[in-house]
Write a structure and sequence with these properties.
This protein is an alpha/beta fold. Helices cover about 45% and strands about 15% of the residues.
Length: about 250
């Protein structure tokens, strides 16, 4: 059995799908760096080819529509180490049926894609709600996050629209890349980021002098709206899981 290994990009996955159909043999697809569990598999690295990726994308879109493509993309962003099996399964099923098959939840691949996409969508909404910016001395608002899934591509438009007149950076510590917006365009950036420097080190002067005022105002607002008699910690943890707390201004200090 042949294992096609790609470069972890969505375009790379689509190129691997193109090659799978070209070869007309039994294959499976994996991201590079993922351990190959097939003891007798031949491994082939796939070089991303934009033209091949676009041909596959157009074919999928003609069958499942833009909404179906987005559902596949969201499932892809889940980073499930074996999500490619379900994605390829859905694509093969759709091409054979020559129809949109996303309503067929009796199919295991369709169901897995739906479940993965739903988890990613939930994390997207949480990130949009829980991102807390801090102002640096360079007049750039920055936020550090560690989402369960790779949702930065999904929250990009939300923050471009909401903070269109500000320079901001949202950095994913877990995946070591971020989005930087300069009031015109948003770029993907990577850099050496030390969490202790960004969050805890008082000796490093990166925050603007007014930042303490903004943080204290936010904490005061949170305290005033948090009525003790109505406190429901179980419900609170359901909506604001503890893994987000270290980046929330209202939870610090």
């Amino acid at each position: 059995m042949l294992c096609l290994v790609y470069n972890r990009s969505f375009e790379g996955f689509l190129t691997a799908v193109f090659e799978a159909y070209e070869r007309k043999e039994n294959v499976y697809i994996r991201k590079n760096g993922i351990e190959n569990k097939g003891l007798f598999s031949e491994i082939k690295e796939v070089i991303t080819y934009e033209a091949h990726a676009q041909r596959v994308l157009k074919k999928i879109e003609s069958l499942v529509g833009i909404a179906g493509v987005r559902r596949l993309w969201k499932a892809f962003l889940s980073e499930d180490p074996e999500i490619e099996d379900a994605m390829l399964g859905v694509i093969v099923y759709s091409i054979k049926s020559n129809a949109d098959i996303f309503s067929d939840f009796g199919n295991q691949h369709v169901l897995k894609i739906h479940q993965a996409a739903k988890k990613v969508e939930r994390e997207k909404h949480r990130m949009e709600a829980f991102v807390r910016f801090k102002l640096t001395t360079d007049n750039i608002f920055y936020a550090v996050v560690e989402p369960d899934f790779n949702v930065l591509p999904l929250i990009k438009t939300h923050f471009e629209n909401r903070y269109a007149d500000q320079h901001w950076l949202i950095y994913d510590m877990k995946r070591n890349y971020g989005l930087y917006y300069d009031e015109q365009t948003t770029e993907i950036v990577t850099m050496e980021v030390n969490e202790n420097t960004l969050l805890k080190n008082p000796e490093t002067k990166i925050l603007d002098d007014s930042e303490d005022i903004y943080q204290n105002l936010w904490k005061a607002y949170f305290k005033s709206t948090n009525i003790k008699s109505r406190k429901n910690m179980k419900l609170h943890l359901r909506h604001v899981p503890k893994r987000y707390w270290k980046y929330l201004t209202e939870k610090l200090g």
